[in-house]
Amino acid sequence: MKLLIPTLLSAACAFSSMESMAAADLILHGGKVYTAEPGQSLQQAVAVENGRILAVGSDAQILKLKQAGTQVIDLHGKVLMPGFIDSHTHLVKGGLQMLQANLNNEDMPITELESKLRQWRDDGRARRGKFLYIGGIPTQYWDRIDELQQRFNQGEWAKQPILLAGGDYHTGWANQALLDLAGVDVAKVKSLQGEEQATIGHAADGTPNGFLVDAGLYPVQALLPLPTNDELVDALKGAQRYYHELGITAWMEPLANENPGGDIHNDSVGVLPAYKALSQSGELTAHVAALLMADSKATPADLDELDKVRQQFQGVNNLTLPGIKIFADGVAEMPAQSAAMLEPYSNSKKSGELLIDPKHFGELVSAADARGWLVHIHAIGDRAVRESLNGIEQARKDRHSGIPHSITHLEVVNPKDYPRFKQLDVIASMQLFWAAADEMSVDLLKPYVSAATFKTLYPAHSLLKNGATIAGASDWPITTPDPWKAIYQALERVGPKGVLNAGEEVDRMTMFQAYTLNAARTLRLEDSIGSLKPGKQADLILLDRDVFKVKPEALRDTQVLKTWFAGREVYSRP
Are 385 and 485 in the same domain? Predict the structure, then answer.
């Protein structure tokens, strides 16, 4: 793609009539303007009127729209882009994590963890009623369960219920005091069937060791008191500030009926009241596409209950509810290994747990599609990805709705399924910050899958080559929401243990598109945001470096100087 600044014929024609019709209230000129419009090269200037893009073009063209009251900003050659969009983030949960006890996936000795727990117990950050809770525990701790048992099941902790929640939000460890309260014992383990037994870690005789995965974790976690509405609003405000600092002006909240730290309860409707409260106060300065989680084995009739929730939040400014989120499986890394794989894990000889019913999943997707709802599916393992595609294929056979269904995470994808993303018009919502040769991929996954399977980890280039649409996503607070760190990782795929699957890298222009127009389509907002096109909302970010020319290493540290939402400045770097 040539980074030139042409005078486009279509733009010139538009200006001939525009000059007499409208005047800008904001003009940004003298920059490198990336519009994210397909096929359009860099421009110089943007005019904004009433929060929307009035025109994009050369300095000469745009400055003609200046009038007495127009605010004019000289960009001094800096890069201006559309606001970035995160197509998968748990924003309110991330905001809570900023306020509570959290390791942020930092590995440390158990003695240091114990010291932090004491500190956070005493200052209140770890207290959740009578429980102590620390989030963001790195999964490396699950190799030290014996140490955790010895440290936190005796002495001052013997009668104190403690939950250490994994940074992946799928795993955790509960001490004996908490297991007793939750009724997790030998009898409970022996009552589980097949793959379910892997959700509660246990010795050969069935004695639980405290390790919990997904269905084993959620009931224990649900014992802890939930945050109040005021706490959720405070968390949302802090998280929104953080996202504006990163240049993010829109996102998908994929579990909007979840009470963070608890279960799905459609009667209390999760984080949606916090978004509504912030919107009603005029403080929601971002576009939020909130999805309601449907049970993995839900039937078409179950969608009626979710629709009742949706109806409560229609017409809330800057909030849309375009569809549903479904879990197809869990996570792939040892010891959880709950991601559904086509080939069994070499150590357990099990294939993980497919949460959806492949015989009927297509009926659910098609029913949602018929309602005009998008379906966004969590799929980590290659079997989960395949069955997710099969479900969407059923909807495509039933009708050509054009609704942009999506699959997120896509850690392992079988090569036979690469072309199906384009064929079925399925968006690949990828967290490419994870595409690194690190402990997660090299130590906790590689030894337990085949060499051929390992080569399909985060196959961004292969999907792109086969025509897939890639959308940028973070899954914050599991990992950083910073798009620039993810963009760097997508280009280099380097980690502390080398390069992960060289050849699966993508270029920066692909990633810029992934975080703008492609992500907007994932949210079903491509007609109003995602590119700098006349008529769309003026969500803009100004950058501190020329992201088209700097080396990949410099991309990683890109800073946002200013963020505008609907033409109004919502962040300025000090």
Answer: yes
pLDDT score at 13: 40
Task: Report how far residue 357's alpha carbon sits from residue 413's, in angstroms, rounded to the nearest whole number.
Answer: 19
From residue 363, give the alpha-carbon distance in Å to each of 387, 392, 394, 401: 13, 9, 7, 15
Range of the domain at 28: 9-82+535-572
- Residue that the structure tokens 């579990």 belong to: 255
What's residue 511's pLDDT?
98
Instruction: Judge if 201 and 134 occupy the same domain.
Output: yes
Structure tokens at 345: 């894990």
Which CATH number does the domain housing residue 395 bear? 3.20.20.140
- Same domain, yes or no, for 425 and 336? yes
* Lookup result for tokens 């620039």: 484
Task: Give the end-to-end CA distance of the chain in Å, rounded to a whole number.
Answer: 34
Q: Which of 212, 175, 207 lies closest to 189, judged by CA?
A: 207
Using CA atoms, how far apart are residues 538 and 568, in angstroms rounded to an integer?
8
Domain boundary, last residue among 221, 237, 272: 221
Q: Token pair of 160, please? A: 């104190």
User: What is the C-alpha to C-alpha distance for residues 436 and 319, in angstroms, rounded to an integer?
Assistant: 34
CA angle 459/388/198 to nearest 5° reads: 90
Same domain, 192 and 46: no
**Cα–Cα distance measured from residue 331 to residue 335, given in angstroms and rounded to the nearest whole number:** 9
Phi, psi of 172, rounded to the nearest 5 degrees: -170, 175
Residue 264: its pLDDT value, please?
A: 66
Low-confidence ranges of the chain (pLDDT < 50): 1-21
Give 3-state DSSP helix, strand, coil % of the chain, rounded to 5: 35, 20, 45
Q: Are 275 and 284 in contact (CB under 8 A)?
A: yes
- pLDDT value, residue 520: 98
Residue 268: its pLDDT value, please?
A: 66
396-433 pLDDT, tens per residue? 999 999 999 999 999 999 999 999 999 999 999 999 99
Identify the CA nearest to 565 among candidates 310, 265, 317: 317
Residues 6+ apart with CB under 8 A from 388: 328, 356, 361, 377, 379, 407
Write the DSSP symbol of residue 268.
T
CATH of the domain at 42: 2.30.40.10
Both structure tokens of 22: 């409208």
Q: Do 164 and 72 share a structural domain?
A: no
CA distance 304 to 306: 5
Quote the pLDDT of residue 6: 36
Residues 393 and 433 in one domain: yes
Count of domains in the chain?
Answer: 3
